[in-house]
Amino acid sequence: MRRRKFISAAAAGSATLLATPMTAQSAMAQKEFNLKNNINHSVCQWCFGDIPLEEFLRFLNDHSIKAVDLIGPIDWPLLKQYDIFCSMCNGAEISLTEGWNDPKYHEQLIANYTDIIPQVAEAGYTNLICFSGNRRGMNDYVGLQNCVDGLSKIMPLAEKNGVVIQMELFNQINHPDYMCDSSLWGVELCKRLGSDNFKLLFDIYHMQIQEGDIIRSIQNYHPYFGHYHTAGVPGRHEIDENQELYYPAIMRAILETGYKGYVAQEFIPAKANKLESLKEGFLICDV
Question: Which of 8, 62, 170, 219 has a CA between 20 and 30 Å from the CA of residue 178?
Answer without folding.
Answer: 219
